[in-house]
Amino acid sequence: MQTRRQNMKQTVALVGALASTGLLPLPARAFNKKAFEAKSVLDAAKAFGGDTLVESKEVTIQGPDIAENGAVVPLGAATTAAGVKHMLILVEKNPNVLVAMFNVSDAVVPNFATRAKMGQSSDVYALAVMNDGRALFAKKEVKVTLGGCGG
């Protein structure tokens, strides 16, 4: 009779073997180290294949003008442009600029929302990386108040 520990070891070994052959795709394979280490908006765009930044009315960013709690700032990004590969939400003055990345296909409506942590007031970007290499963006300034006093 096999113990639970022996069973777990065999399962982990099997999953590892399948993952190394490519038969079992793991989410970690989608990790883009350059993007998560990017210190600027342009660097993050380049990490996802965007070579030129172009401001566009086809991309919109949603967020509060004043965030009373920088720990949970609601942000949203959307686009009406065709041929979008990725949608990014970026906070310019965060230690790591990239907040969220969403893969887009023809079956996906490119309208996303999330919450981000912001340590200070900053410009927030919604960036649509296109299949042709362009990166369309919209930006908005979000002010973070200290102590949640709203002033």
TrEMBL record:
<protein>
    <recommendedName>
        <fullName>Ig-like SoxY domain-containing protein</fullName>
    </recommendedName>
</protein>
<dbReference type="InterPro" id="IPR016568">
    <property type="entry name" value="Sulphur_oxidation_SoxY"/>
</dbReference>
<dbReference type="InterPro" id="IPR038162">
    <property type="entry name" value="SoxY_sf"/>
</dbReference>
<feature type="signal peptide">
    <location>
        <begin position="1"/>
        <end position="30"/>
    </location>
</feature>
<keyword id="KW-0732">Signal</keyword>
<dbReference type="Pfam" id="PF13501">
    <property type="entry name" value="SoxY"/>
</dbReference>
<dbReference type="InterPro" id="IPR006311">
    <property type="entry name" value="TAT_signal"/>
</dbReference>
<feature type="domain" description="Ig-like SoxY">
    <location>
        <begin position="46"/>
        <end position="149"/>
    </location>
</feature>
<dbReference type="InterPro" id="IPR032711">
    <property type="entry name" value="SoxY"/>
</dbReference>
